[in-house]
Amino acid sequence: MIPMHGAYAADAAGPKRSQAEIAVRCDLAAAYRLIALHGLDDSIYTHISARVPDAENQFLINPFGLLFRDVTAGSLVKIDLEGRQLEDSPHDVNPAGFTIHSAIHAARHDAACVLHTHTVAGVAVSTLEEGLLPLNQWSLLFHQRVAYHDFEGIALDLDERERLVADLGASAKVLILRNHGLLTVGRSVADAVLTMLALEKACRAQIAVLSTGRPVREIPEAIRQKTLRQLESGDGNRMKGQTDPDQRAWHAMLQRLAPAR
Q1: For residue range 147-189, what is the model confidence (pLDDT) as tens digits?
Q2: What is the distance between the alpha carbons of residues 205 and 208, in angstroms, rounded to a whole number?
Q3: Helix, strand, coil proportions of the chain in percent (round to 5)?
Q4: Residue 59: pLDDT band by 50, 70, 90 thresholds?
Q5: Counting beta carbons within 10 angstroms of the beta carbon of residue 167, is it exposed (0 to 12), middle (13 to 18) or buried (19 or more)?
Q6: 208 exposed, middle or buried (CB, 10 Å; 0-12, 13-18, 19+)?
């Protein structure tokens, strides 16, 4: 469990919430604030959701109308796959957020967290016919592992969920929403956030290099595969005594939100 300090952990306990749910609420609220801190938010739009542990088909999502920097563990809204609110809340949820996130949580039980952004670099790459290119170390984490979903307008039609899930597939961690933005699926909140931060950097680097108009030096396929194996292993990033390679980076990220001493 992450340390329950700082404004993002406000009112995390709430009524009848398990320690596991409290921990996920704190992680998710921290994720919202970290995404804002890195400049990946879009006013009150886009969304991050997390599955409620030890509960069937329930997930947490941001209250529609709050800036990401203001989301707290207690203000997160708990809903089911039908969009019904499961706790009293003065807030509602973004309909487009419900469409996208309910689809993925229903279809992918490994999706502990789903993160969606509209950044300039992400939208720019989503409009390129070739999509994300394997041009640098960041992008190699996603080499041959990116799925694409064509733009169908604002995600308000529930029948789009079937096509979105079909395009994502059974194992992809990244979905580029054409002409729209980026989406990551994580086995934890930390996984989804760290994946998105790497994906965003890959997109920014791609747009920057393509804007020069200069010839691009491509990475040989054998090196792409080797680097992907190295990145996926997490061997260079694990903390002593920890099996999850995300914990070192996630712990460091959370210090950005810790109260000043």
Answers
A1: 999 999 887 778 888 999 999 999 899 999 999 999 999 999 9
A2: 5
A3: 40, 15, 45
A4: very high
A5: middle
A6: exposed
Residue 49 in contact with residue 113, Cβ under 8 Å?
Answer: yes
**Distances 229 to 141, 166, 223, 225, 235 between C-alpha atoms, Å:** 9, 26, 10, 6, 10
Pick the CATH number of 7-235+243-257 from 1.20.1290.10, 3.40.225.10, 3.50.50.60, 3.20.20.140: 3.40.225.10
Q: Are strands 58-61 and 77-80 parallel, antiparallel or unpaired?
A: antiparallel
Tokens, residue 137: 């170390």
Q: What residues does each domain of the chain span?
A: 7-235+243-257
Residue 146 gets the label, from left (phi > 0), alpha (psi -120 to 50) or beta, of: beta
127-165 burial, b if ≥16 CB within 10 A, otherwise e?
Answer: eeeebbbbbeebbbbbbeebbebeebeebeeeebbeebb
Which pTM was predicted?
A: 0.90
- On whether the CB atoms of residues 206 and 212 are closer than 8 A, the answer is no
SS3 115: strand
Q: Can you say how many angstroms the Cα of residue 221 is from the centroid of all Cα atoms in its chain?
A: 28
Tokens for 184?
């990551």
68-91 confidence digits (pLDDT tens): 999 999 999 999 888 888 888 878
End-to-end, the C-alpha distance of the chain in Å comes to 21
- Report the amino acid identity of residue 220: P
Going from the C-alpha of 74 to that of each of 150, 170, 181, the distances in angstroms are: 35, 32, 28
pLDDT computed for residue 144 by the predictor = 87
